[in-house]
Amino acid sequence: MADLFPEQQAKEKKEKPHYTGHRDRLRERFVNAPDSLPDYELLELLLFIAIPRKDVKPIAKALIDRFKNINGVLNASMNDLQYIHGISENTAIALKAIQKTGLKILQQDIMGRPILNSWQRLIDYCFAAMANENKEHFRLLFMNKKNELIADEVQQTGTVDHTPAYPREIMKRALDLGATALILVHNHPSGDPSPSDADVQLTRQIINAAKPFDIIVHDHLIVSRNGTSSFKTLGLM
Question: How far is CA 190 from the centre of its chain?
C-alpha cells in the first residue's frame, strides 16, 4: 500500500483543476494589495464563493463586458445577470445580496446623524441607491429638529421618465413620523440630472404644502448615472 501512495499523489495532482492555482494566487494578491485588482478580478473573488468548482474568470469577464464595471454588475437585475452564461439564479442572488449589503452599510452610515453635516455621504448613498435604476423613484428623507435622518423611504415608483408624487401624502407621512424637515430625491434613468420644468413645479408644490406645518424642505436632489444635481445649489429653491 505504501508503494501506491506516490501514484495516488500523482493522480490527485493530475486531476486537480487547472484554475486552483489561479485562485490561490488571486487570493494572495488581494491580501497583499487589495486596491490593485481590476474589476473583473474582484468579481472573480466574489464568484469563488458562489461557484466553488468552476473556472469563473470567463464569467467575470463576460459580466464586465456586458455591464461595463463592477458597479454595473451589482446593480443589474436578477434577470439580466442570468443572461450571462454560467450565472445561475443562486449566483445572481449572491451578487444582489452583496449589492444590498453595501447599500445598507451606506444607509446606516447616515441614519440618525445630522444629515447636513454629512452631505457627501448622503450624495454617495443616494447615488448608490438610485443612479442605476431603470425607472424613476421618488425618495423622501425625513429629519427631526436636529436635522438627524429618522427615515428613508421610497414614496413612489414610476416609469422611465416620470414618477408621480403627491404633496398631501408626503405631508401626512412627515407628520406621522414627527419630521420637521425633508430632503426630496428622485432619479433620472436617462442619465441627465438636469431638473425638468415638471420637477421644479412639483418641488414648489411640496414646499408650499409644507409651510403650514413648519416643515422645511432643505433640498431636492436629482440622481443619474452621470451625476447628481441639487435644486438649492442651482438656485431653484
Answer: 17
CB distance 141 to 149 below 8 Å: yes
Burial label, 108 (beta-carbon count in 10 A; 0-12, 13-18, 19+): exposed
Q: Residue 220 in contact with residue 199, Cβ under 8 Å?
A: yes
Question: Measured between alpha carbons, how far is residue 25 from residues 19, 31, 41, 85, 150 in Å?
Answer: 10, 10, 11, 25, 45
pTM for the model stands at: 0.81
Q: Which amino acid is at 126?
A: C
Are the beta carbons of 56 and 87 closer than 8 angstroms? no
Grid cell digits, residue 64: 464586465
The pLDDT tens digits of the residues spanning 32-82 come to: 998 999 999 999 999 998 998 889 999 999 999 999 999 899 999 999 999
Q: CA torsion sign, 54 to 56 to 57 to 58?
A: positive
Which helix (DSSP H) or strand (DSSP E) does residue 138 occupy? strand 137-143
Cell of 132: 442605476
Contact call for residues 172 and 178 (beta carbons, < 8 A): no
CA 140 to chain centre: 17
The continuous run of DSSP H or E covering 81 comes out as helix 78-81
Amino acid at 121: R
Q: Which secondary structure element, helix H or strand E, spans residue 233, and what is its range?
A: none
